[in-house]
Amino acid sequence: MQTDSSFTFVLFGGTGDLSMRKILPALYEAHRAGMLADSGKIVGVARHEEDRAGYIDWVNGHVKPYVSKDGLDEGVWESFLARIEYVKLDLSKAEDFVLLRDAVNKLSGTRVFYLATGPSLFVPICHALASVGLNENARIVLEKPLGYDLRSSNAINDAVGEIFAEEQIYRIDHYLGKEPVQNLLALRFGNALFEPLWRREWVESIQITIAEELGVEARGDFYDNTGALRDMVQNHLLQLLSIVAMEPPHSMDSDSVRDEKLRVLRALKPIDPRDIQRVAVRGQYHAGVIRGTAVPAYATEPGVKKDSTTETFVALKVEIENWRWAGVPFFLRTGKRLADRVAEIVVNFRPVPHSALGPTALRPGANRLVIRLQPNETIRLYCLAKQPGEGMNLASVHLDLAFDQFFRENQMEAYQRLLLDVINGRLALFVRRDEQEAAWRWVEPILNDWSAANKAPKPYAAGTWGPAAASAMLAQHGTCWLEEEN
Ligand code: BG6
């Protein structure tokens, strides 16, 4: 479906890493799929290139390699380039924003300003846009990290909020744009089957894992000042948790969904600083081996301090204080340089109350739903069945749902979906300010404890599943991480 109307998409940080790897390739894919209105224009904004010709050269040299090989068609690529304009802009020069305004005023349609820049530039850019009247009837897109803690995130939101109304602000969490995350909503609210079981009476525990094989790549400096709690938990993991745990929304309109997610975030049991050792594990990778290749320790990565105490792994036990979930532990986990790249949600149902069929039926996790978000989106439902032969011996079997067997279409990339939503004015997949505040408020005691204690995180070898303490935390609840099942 084509975007509703024409648009002018202004990309600050137009020669940055994010523009190169994600934003421009996603816009190309949308263009190739015929989803952008013909008259829509993209305006790259940067300091480095002199003029449009220079910018087009840069796009050809840097962005093209990130377009999927199957999707690259020279004719289509040329027609994509024809959408691109360029404005050379120095943020410190007010007159450059006058030039930007003049360039944008020549173009038509919905105005989108995408800030693919560091967060320290968000407020100055917004002020400069307002000084030339470009904030009116426009949408602004902010990339994470939005602040460093509750205070700094409030400071940015207050300042941006003076210039743009909340309905004009699109805060990106790219996990919300992923097809499988959308599918989680479909699974929960499009089927009557699971919903009655989706509560404390039937669910024993839930795990949510986002594991990466990659290390910090070229982002050592940024990451060392950020850490996994800010980089992954405050946003992606808490957003996934809120979708897993939310009440059915009245509709899929933006505020119905976001209101329900907010209710979950506000119901997270506050972490008592005295409990942190028990409910939060932080780790840092040492040298190890991933898929047969030796990889270095975090502390020796470029840009990382040698004596860094930044965490590259977090595991948490979280509780939700409401009728549906009281007492059910949610175990969240994320880390870099782990044994596998996987994002999945594991719902462990309670065992039968009494087994006439022997102890197997009483084993935790005998009934379990595993929702694999990436790679290879699948849903697997584990049950017990009788093993053939004499006697009543039970064995674990599973029903598998692999989405690529049902749908031939390729999945749409998260950024493509989110950019189309911005252009079309759909806010549901963007994080509202109150959600973001609730998430920061909840992680704050952990952040404070970890920065004050200044203790080293627990070491783990790259290529493993993180520190042993993460397994011990689950063992206290009589359970284990999915990969630890025999
Ligand atoms: C980003 C983090 O938000 O998400 C990165 O900053 C992380 O550190 C990435 O690697 C993971 O996203 P995905 O889509 O590859 O799972």
- Name the ligand types: 6-O-phosphono-beta-D-glucopyranose
* Domains, number: 2
Give the uncertain stretches in residue-range form.
none
Strand order of the largest sheet: 16-15-14-13-7-12-11-8-17
Any idea what the radius of gyration is?
Answer: 24 Å
Helix content: 25-40%
- The number of helical runs is 14
What does this structure look like?
With 486 residues, the protein is of the alpha/beta class. It folds into two domains: 7-143, NAD(P)-binding Rossmann-like Domain (Rossmann fold); 176-410 and 437-485, Dihydrodipicolinate Reductase, domain 2, CATH 3.30.360.10. Helices cover 34% and strands 21% of the residues. It has helices at residues 17-32, 52-63, 74-81, 94-105, 122-131, 150-163, 179-189, 220-224, 227-245, 254-267, 276-279, 414-424, 433-453, 468-475; strands at residues 7-12, 41-46, 84-88, 110-115, 138-142, 169-171, 203-211, 280-286, 288-290, 293-295, 313-318, 330-335, 342-349, 368-374, 378-386, 394-402, 458-461. A hairpin with a 2-residue loop joins β9 and β10. α1 (17-32) packs across α12 and α9 (227-245) packs across α10 (254-267). The longest helix is centred in the last third of the chain and has 21 residues, at 433-453. The model has no long low-confidence stretch (mean pLDDT 94). Bound molecules: 6-O-phosphono-beta-D-glucopyranose (BG6). 6-O-phosphono-beta-D-glucopyranose binds next to loops.
